[in-house]
Amino acid sequence: MSAENADGNVEQIREILFGGQMRDYERRFADLEERLTRNVEQISQRFENRLEQLDAYAKRELEKFSELMQQERSTREQGREQGVKELHDVSQRAESQYAELQERLGGEANDLRQRLQDNIEEMSSVIHNTEKQLSEGIAAETKKVADTSVRRDDLAALLSDIANRLTKDQ
Questions:
Q1: Count H helices, E strands: the chain?
Q2: Measured between alpha carbons, how far is 80 from 82 in angstroms, rounded to an integer?
Q3: The whole model's pTM is what?
Q4: CA 51 to each of CA 36, 41, 45, 133: distance values in angstroms, whole numbers, following the listed order
Q5: What CA–CA distance (Å, rounded) separates 133 from 120?
Q6: Less CB within 10 Å around the terminal CB: N or C of the chain?
Q7: How many CB atoms lie within 10 A of CB 19?
């Protein structure tokens, strides 16, 4: 017998002794491998499905967050624009009130200057009239005094003349 024949006989003996069990093991291993492959595919499919669901959920949440951020940005921009507008309005009102106050104060200052000028002119007129009246009064009193002084001289001359006559008559 040759080595090849011996190997073939060993194979036949093995087939007789273990053939049924070997086929059963091979079938079981094939079934097990098929179940493992199916399970791995199912798990892989479930994992992919869950990953897709998670990805979709993350995208939805990211979109919601992005929308909220956009709304917040828009709200802040509107608030900023409104604040700028209100600040501009307040600034214009303040400038208008300042100009009005300046105009009013300028008018009141002019009124005060005019009244002061009128008062000065009136006082000047009163002083001039008083000075004129005083001058006239002094002139009148001076004339009276002068007239009275002349009469005294005349009286003195008269009395002297009387005294001379009385002295001659005696």
A1: 1, 0
A2: 5
A3: 0.39
A4: 21, 15, 10, 119
A5: 19
A6: C
A7: 13
